[in-house]
Design a protein that fits this description.
Elements: H1 2-27
Organism: human gut metagenome
GO molecular function, one term: isomerase activity
Keywords: Isomerase
Length: about 50
């Protein structure tokens, strides 16, 4: 049914996001992300990106 497919899609999206966040948490200390000074005072989901 339509509801089952939607539920399955939502569960997959949740799992993909969770796996990505776990990967990101492990990798973030070794990452270098250049953020233009003009945007460094913005709201970032992960505060560790601005060093």
């Amino acid at each position: 049914t339509h509801y089952y497919l939607r539920l399955e899609e939502m569960a997959l999206q949740d799992k993909q996001e969770r796996v990505f966040r776990e990967w990101l948490t492990k990798k973030i200390d070794g990452m270098y992300v250049f953020i233009d000074p003009e945007y460094r005072n913005g709201e970032f989901e992960n505060k560790h990106w601005v060093k």
